[in-house]
Amino acid sequence: MTNLDHFSGGVPAKVIFEMNVEELSKVIELSSSDESAHKKALEVCFIGLISYFEAFMKDHFASIINICPELLNDLKKNGQDTMINSADLLLLEHNHINRVGFLIAEKYDLGTANKINSVYMALLKVSPFSKSEKHKFDSLLNDRNLIVHHGGIYSLSYSQQNHQKEDVANNMFMHSLAIDVDFFGEALVNISKLVEKTVLATHKKLSDYIDENKIYLTEERQKALDALVWRL
After folding, report:
1. Farthest CA pair distance, the chain
2. Is residue 28 assigned to a domain?
3. pLDDT tens for residues 129-158?
4. Residue numbers of the domain that contains 107
5. Among 6-10, 150-154, 164-168, 202-206, which stretch is predicted with the lowest mean pLDDT?
6. Quick check: 86 pLDDT over 80?
7. What residues contact 14, with CB distance under 8 A and at least 6 apart?
8. In a domain, 32, yes or no
9. CB of 147 closer than 8 Å to CB of 97
10. Is residue 42 part of a domain?
11. 3-class DSSP state for residue 8?
12. pTM of the model
């Protein structure tokens, strides 16, 4: 087993996220010469941005457990489900203990800021979202869900969630959310900051946890710990 086997796809979650973001930026740039295609590219890439962020949160969570399975004791103690189907271990072939995080992560819904904070707090006493960051992300989720489930056309539930926006209520069922370059750019900056913040905070907490509990790391596990903060 190598240090990269601790990561989904053999690549640290942060690096995968950065690679995906780079590709999204290329898609937007390539579409810029066609106004209609550019608008649609921004919309689709916004959906992708939120999806890649959700994937990051789950994959990063899994990698932390793979690097330090001892954290499962804390996760269980803090009320989180750590049960897995023993037959599923056969799918991991060798080194089950260093890949069990993949099975644990599959059990959790990390689709909202509250759920992400709850699980990361139980694991490492880390809250990826502050109160203001949670509010911004919840708004982005509402926007993403409106596009995915309603084609972007203002719905009743979206209007109720955005009651402070008069233009939304007045154009319900008729007009749609517009994703422009500025909107996407701001969302990208905010999401990227959350990724960076989460990686740095969890890396420090995990390193401290390992030191405080005198946990022995093999060379591969130590290299995987270091790889958490790799940059593209």
Report:
1. 61
2. yes
3. 999 999 999 999 999 999 999 888 877 777
4. 3-126+180-227
5. 164-168
6. no
7. 56, 60, 195, 196, 199, 228, 229, 230, 231
8. yes
9. no
10. yes
11. helix
12. 0.90
| CA neighbours closer than 13 Å in the CB half-sphere of residue 30 | 8
Packed helices 181-212 and 13-30: angle between N→C axes, nearest 10 degrees? 170
CA angle 166, 138, 24 (to 5 degrees): 100
Q: How far apart are CA 130 and CA 117, in angstroms?
A: 9
What is the rounded distance in angstroms from the CA atom of residue 69 to the CA atom of residue 131?
Answer: 30
Beta carbons of 114 and 68 less than 8 angstroms apart: no
CA pair distance 213, 102, nearest whole angstrom: 23
Q: How far apart are CA 63 and CA 104, in angstroms?
A: 10
Residue 118: both structure tokens together:
């709850």
SS (H, E, C) 143-171: HHHHHHHHCCECCHHHHHHCCCCHHHHHC
At 78, give phi and psi (nearest 5°).
-90, 20
Contact present, 100 and 94 (Cβ < 8 Å): no
Which has the closest alpha carbon to 137: 54, 26, 20? Answer: 54
Q: How far is CA 1 from the centre of its chain?
A: 26
Residue 109 within a domain: yes
Distances in whole angstroms, Cα of residue 227 to Cα of each of 4, 91, 199, 207: 8, 25, 10, 12
Q: Is 229 helix (H, G, I), strand (E, B) or coil?
A: coil
Average pLDDT over residues 80-100: 71
Total domain count for the chain?
1
Using one digit for the tens of pLDDT, what is the confidence trace for 212-225?
A: 999 999 999 999 99
